[in-house]
Amino acid sequence: MKLHYFLPLALLSLSQCRSDKEAEGPPPPMPVQVAHPVIKTVALTNTYTGRFSPVEEVELQARVSGYLESVHFVEGQKVEKGDLMFKIDPRVFDAAISRAEAIQKQAVARLGLAKSSLARSKALVAQNAVSQEEFDTRESELAQAEADLLAAEAELRRVKLDREFADIHAPISGIAGRFNVTVGNYVTGGSAGSTLLTTIVPHNPIYCNFEVDERSVLQFTRLFFKGQSGGRSGERPEVEIAVSDDDNFEFKGSIDFSENQLDTETATLQMRARVENENEFLTPGLFARVRVPVGHPEELLMVKDASLGFDQDKRFAWVLTKDNSVERRYVETGPLEGDMRVISGGIDNDDLIAISGIQLLRPGAKVAPTTAPMVAE
């Protein structure tokens, strides 16, 4: 009996709830900002990760053996080409020079004697006073004396060169590294195992090395065949470079080298830009982001990248229809330039697309649009 009593009451309550909801009506249109895509003249770029490296690097090694007598530079400081860096004890080399000079003088004296003996033999052989055999001997002695003098002179030049090598000078200008050998130690020179004394690395100019992926290589190649790039023999493309602590691409350089083939393991092409670094702010080893132009500037359709949604691997925009509802429109996208994305298909500049509240929109949803500029003025 109780069940039959409460059932009419439950049905009455449910009916009243439905009536209340119907009285409320549909939700009000969602306010959104809409904007037309913009057409901008831009030079497209690709950005790659790179690293700075020195234009040249010298490992300063001993060319002669001996005990290190003195060091004449400060580690980590700049040195100029020709500066004295190290000095090996020169006394052994000075003694070798004195000995070589004495041998050279002996050779000169023997040559003079051989010339006199040959002259006398020549006069006597004409008078049949000496045999032809003795005359031939004198000629041979002269030739031997001339050869001995040449050997003595060569040895003198060699030991003088060793003496020069005992004073080790900077072959280039740059920043000196630490010295690996301290005064009083024996250093070995003149062989593959020569002692490494220090390194010198110049900072101006500097290289920025980066790798270009296979797709980009094909892109650049197609631009060349379309006449939009000079290729390897054309003008050096200018690039912009940013370092890791700054989003601004404040450094400029030009590509001066690209490898002749792709790396088969990474499918990338090695490229290099030369960067002027007069204040020596950039240091070899720093990471960099390199922005490389792609083709000539052209007019392109662009929208804010934040106005595009994701559907797995596709991008879409919410396009305003005539009845103030929105439809999902899939678009073909190109590179990102700042906060603007290039659009190559799917919408045109007459369309109005939502640029706010896109996460809350659904296909067919009614909206209250307010027109706004795509690019802040």
Can you give a write-up of this model?
This protein has 377 residues and is α+β, with helices and mostly antiparallel strands. The protein folds into three domains: 30-42 and 298-371, conserved putative lor/sdh protein from methanococcus maripaludis s2 fold (Beta Barrel); 46-55 and 212-293, Beta Barrel (Elongation Factor Tu (Ef-tu), domain 3); 58-201, RNA polymerase II/Efflux pump adaptor protein, barrel-sandwich hybrid domain (OB fold (Dihydrolipoamide Acetyltransferase, E2P)), CATH 2.40.50.100. It is 28% helix and 35% strand. The chain has four helices and 23 strands. It has helices at residues 2-24, 91-126, 132-165, 214-225, and strands at residues 30-35, 38-42, 45-54, 58-61, 66-71, 78-79, 84-88, 167-169, 174-176, 186-187, 196-201, 206-213, 238-243, 251-258, 268-275, 287-293, 298-304, 309-311, 314-320, 326-337, 340-345, 353-354, 367-371. It has a six-stranded antiparallel β-sheet with strand order 2-17-21-20-19-18, with no helix packed on it. It has a six-stranded antiparallel β-barrel with strand order 3-12-15-14-13-16. Strands 4-11-9-6 form a four-stranded antiparallel β-sheet, with no helix packed on it. A hairpin with a 7-residue loop joins β13 (238-243) and β14. α2 (91-126) packs antiparallel against α3. The longest helix is centred in the first third of the chain and has 36 residues, at 91-126. The radius of gyration is 42 Å and the shape is elongated. The mean pLDDT is 88.
Quick structural summary:
The chain is an alpha+beta fold.
